Amino acid sequence: MAVEKTYPEIRDAVARLCERFPGEYWRKLDQEKVYPSEFVQALTEAGYLSILIPEEYGGSGLPLGAACAVLEEIHRSGGNGGACHAQMYTMGTLLRHGSKEQKSQYLPGIAEGSLRLQAFGVTEPGSGTDTSRIRTNAVRDGDDYVVNGQKVWISRTQHSDLMILLVRTTAREDSTRHTDGMSVLLVDLREAVGNGLSIKPIDTMMNHATTELFFDDLRVPAKNLIGEEGKGFRCILDGMNAERILIAAECIGDARWFTRKSSQYACEREVFGRPIGQNQGVQFPIARAHIQTEAAALMVQQAADLYDAGEPAGAEANMAKLLASEASWAAADQCIQTHGGYGFAVEYDVERKFRETRLYQVAPVSTNLILSFVATQELGMPKSF
Asked: What is the pTM of this model?
């Protein structure tokens, strides 16, 4: 079944909600670099941000495929899920590796909207995509961990109450494997900011509320350790795979928005006495972008199905993200080309969506790192680094 046919009731409801937040809403936020608080609140009240939380904790208890449908529909409607998608993919870490006590303490509040878990602290300036080389460390001191270090490109920390944080509890050189020695902490940002954590906003080409974080003897209760100390990389992978699948769904939504926008404009715009879409030089690239999108959507669905079944989904998550991001970028480029000069006019929304979807060629996980993973892990070729 094609991705767009899954969860039709959810898709229709999300589309109706998004009608309340048209292009004018997103353009204004983009120009003023303002977080879409009203939109996120509407999603929260409708229960979409708690879609993965089990019913016993107040959520819907639906699989990742349902979350994919929500985010795809947001993007297909011209919006952007970057303001809220972390509350979905962080569930991959908290739900699968959190203790019963942690789930009981935090999940009901997240489900009802009184708590927001929107921050995922992994990337550092000196490590880039080599997560094993993170240097932010946590040292056990009685009932606390004391955290020191720095994170970068961590979005929504100023709009979140909680953060999933990856730290080193054992130095890389002292670990048996380079992915050992890392641990996951759940940080209460309401208590942390000003008490060992400082946040510096980063101005970027898209309105993504991203920041740089500085930790200076931040104390985090040891009871906030998620999973086993030193085995945090495995815990974080479940969140990362979910993130890549969800981002891929967003890219499919973007691509479908772009191809719809392109085809509509190609039918309406007349030059030399006929619609420009009557020219094969215009219509064929749009058709190719559509085909590329539908093929990528199938991989996204396969990745989500494997993840929901508890099967290994690393390769599929990576391939889905690569294919979907390339499909959205191809569709975006063709949309600009179809609109000509009007594609650069703010009022058409094309240039905004063009900037937003370009991000996914870079993050999360770069295209080259995906290709390296597939080459070495799936095809058995030697590592190039």
From this structure: 0.95
